[in-house]
Specification:
A hairpin with a 5-residue loop joins strand 5 and strand 6. The radius of gyration is 13 Å and the shape is globular. The protein is mostly beta strands. It has no helices and 11 strands.
């Protein structure tokens, strides 16, 4: 299983970015997938997840501004991030599950850095 994130970068407060997570050796429709972030000195935080059924959930801090989605044909997971705030500055990781019935996420990508300046 290989997950490769891309799309990170530097943006000003209020800007947008779209992160991508391309999967290989793994069918993204087979299980839950999620986006996480971790800033230096802080604990890792789940940002959003999407269940096998397509049901999504979000951290309160990003509701209404971030959207998780997937393209099954491209086998790629996305995170659209709008109205970004400086506190969103973190390394962002995608993760994938290994069971169709749960959101246990043992597979991880290397991450992509997002920096938001005020």
């Amino acid at each position: 299983v290989q997950l490769v994130e891309s799309g990170g970068g530097s943006v000003q407060s209020g800007g947008s970015l779209r992160l991508s997570c391309a999967a290989s050796g793994y069918d993204i429709s087979s299980s839950c997938m999620g986006w996480f972030r971790q800033a230096p000195g802080k604990e890792r935080e789940e940002v959003a997840n999407i269940r096998r059924s397509g049901t999504t959930s979000y951290a309160e801090s990003v509701k209404g501004r971030f959207t998780i989605s997937r393209d099954l044909a491209a086998n790629t997971l996305y995170l659209q991030m709008n109205n970004l705030r400086p506190e969103a500055t973190s390394m962002y990781y995608c993760a994938a599950g290994d069971r169709w019935w749960s959101c246990n996420l043992p597979y991880w990508g290397q991450g992509t850095q997002v920096t938001v300046s005020s």
